[in-house]
Amino acid sequence: MIAYLKYCKRRMTFIFFLFIASTMLGQEYKGSFSPVLSSLQKTVISQLSDSQKKLSTDLVQLIDRKYLPIGTTLQTHIASMKGMKQFQSDEVDVFTIDQVVKSKVYVYIKLQPAAQISQIESLASRVTDVDTKNSLVVAWVEVDKLEKIASLDAVKSIRTVMPPIVRTGSVTTEGDGIHKTSDVRTTYSQSGSGIKVGIISDGVDTRSAAQATSDLPADDSGLTILSNAIGGDEGTAMLEIVHDMVPAADLYFHDLGGNFVAFNSAISDLVSAGCDVICDDVGWLTQPFYEDGTVASHVASVLSANDIIYVSAAGNAGTSHYQGDYTSLQETPLHTFSGDENSPYLYLDMEIGESVIIVLQWNDAFGSSGNDYNLFLFEATGETVVAQSVVVQDGNDDPLEVISYTAATTDDYPIVVQKTSGSTKNLEVYIYPNGCSAYSNNISPVDAIFGHPAVVGAVAVGAVRVTTPTTIESFSSQGPCTITYPASVSRSKPDIVGTDGGVITGAGGFGQLVVSDWRFYGTSASAPHISAVCAQLWAQLPGDAGDDIRDRILTTSVDLGTAGFDNVFGYGRADALAAFDTYTEPEIDVQRPASTSITDTGTDNVGSQTVGTVNLTYTIDNTAGTAPLSVTGVTASSYVNSSGFAVVTSLPLNVAAGGTGTLNVSFDVDAAGAFSLAIDIASNDADEDPYDITIEGTGVLNHVYAKIKVWLQGSYQAGGSMTTTLKTNGYIPTTSPYSDGRTVSTVPAGVTDWVFVELRTSATGSAVAQRSFFVKSNGEIVDEDGSTTDLQISGVADDDYFIVVRHRNHLAVMSTAAQALDTSPTSQYNFTTALTQYYGADADRAKEVETGVWGLNAGDGNESGIVTISDANLAITNRDDVGYHISDYNLSGIVTISDANLAIANRDANTNVN
User: Fold this and answer.
1) Buried b or exposed e, range 221-243, using 16+ CB within 10 angstroms
2) What is d(CA 885, CA 103) in angstroms, rounded to the nearest whole number?
3) 431-454 pLDDT, tens per residue?
């Protein structure tokens, strides 16, 4: 009889599992403590040595059983510690004192401040973690070394590491220990907080059973169901695994949809929900084997556009897959799977009622196949065809044949491929049995990964059983993945392996019942284990990109099989603790300017600063460690002559290891004289959080005042006033039309329009300071309150300045001579009294609006500095336009022929301001 492996198939998903395992029954420890302490016990406790007094009671009880409570045996005590993962022994059962003292306990060793840990390391079996800031060492220590360590002056206390209170329930997957996520929770106190993990599978119909035992969080309190329309409970089991390993992570679920388009939508929905890690266990049977199909392309695009990690089961086709070039069987059109006439086919063992789906593809591009192959299933005894797929491929077809069959007779069933026409191609067959099994003839797990798990960047997960975690499951699909289109390439897959066969609750009857435990087999069980490892590390390193987290998990995995990467185990079995142990804390350095460090608690002297808002730019340098630095907040205190501190840069500011970032802050200097403030920069730098800096300097009044009066010809009315029509009609904007873009909350009453004031140190030089103001109907230029005529212009010191006034459709003017301006309000410079108040020699440099009264020439709508016929034409073109219009030269709120006439009357008038 031909040797074969027969696999079980769980309902609906065509996922089948090899089931050969022995089981162990576990028991949860629940401690109880008596509040009564007998006088005898007090007497015994008084006999403790000074060293023993540094130990927690459970450790003392290991050293000397006389300290055990009445009715508690040493074995019971040890069993309790084992249950909490505090006790390790090479012995299966610990009965003697000699066995106890050579066993190890997991302890916190609290040290005196600034104590050296070297002497602890020499006595401990293994130091797992060191917290230098809090003088704490976590280590596995042999029992007989406890008192010696406790006798050291540097040691303050030794206590067992108690397991944290987490949201795990009645069962926990053994993968939690094998992948060492439990060690990470203990050592690094990291349970996945802040990370969202999305699962795609069939359903979560009976999740309430797992929620009742705390094996899953409640809906909308840690678990979000986006869609559950397909039915089943494989999703429940996958979520349980993730929750066991990262109980603080937020879980999301979406069913797989009824087709691969809906499946792509499920992926997009989880991305939109903010999921950081997405995991599925879905295989679309007819997606292309030799190219990226609809699903694979979508996954590739999602990975390209989003900072996520995508994890997918590699598949369970290791015992039901074939690949090879077409070879004629004895010059017939039939293909020999073996290469000769001996055992030339693939064979199924089927009993009545069992079913199968068989998929054949060959290496033509989808939509372009002109090589015609057919697929048949024979019933061996009767030598008759019981199922067939004979689609014609004649140049524009998919290279695909699919059959499904439910057995009416118990028999062996050969799978036969026939070449009808065309050239020799590489053939690939996947068998999806439901109850039946495939014989091992011509079956191979090699190159058995296709579809979206084969996408570059996606994490394809193979399976190793929890009872044999160094051996690949025979059904686990192996690589590489052969891609032919659009170019030939061999992709290295799988990426990694995770455990399967772990304990689940069995909610909804899902899983395999082994003795009294429900267990979950297949790469479907392996994938969520890897998702949890990714979530745990990303929670620790939130500033890292998803690609970096993925790569760290892969490269720190336990190498299995051939040294280095191989197509059976990928990079190996995920090891969360190893990934964390490669992480070292970041180190912050604050610099201003760049490369000039300001020490923690140091002073940043910023020198003289103009009274008002000061902006500073600091360089944040992550000088050490492998982890990114995250600046999470900056606060200020101890203000002296300063106020209004603000962080301009969006936080958190994440800086990669060895990289730099920019932190912009601002504050106000309130008055002239010395000022200072203290700022605290919060980050994940363990020993410099916060980073304290004192900013100090001297405030100077670096501004001058000017007082100005002008008339605008277009708006002037005889008798010494200008119209306020634009203000009355609400046309004047609250944001200045000039280059400074000054904005006010409201335009004050009595305003004619915005004007722009510039200061120059020479008549032909450029502006050294400028600011928008309003001009009122009485000609006075005022500040935003509508009454202040002392105009403060910042950024310049006391000096002589030419005063320039610009208007958006009048010609600019400048004072005849430089005016002495300083920090005290000055006398008014009145442009209205004579032509000689205007710089230049041209007679038309200003307009006499009535006898002896002068103003700015109207009509420069195109802002060319000269009034031309083009300005008149502009008004004609815009005739009847209403509002705040550039060609409304008389500022009436509507462009009319009067505006054109103003421009015509002022034709060739030229500003004398360059």
Assistant:
1) ebbbbbbbebebbbbbbbbbbbb
2) 90
3) 999 899 999 999 999 999 999 999
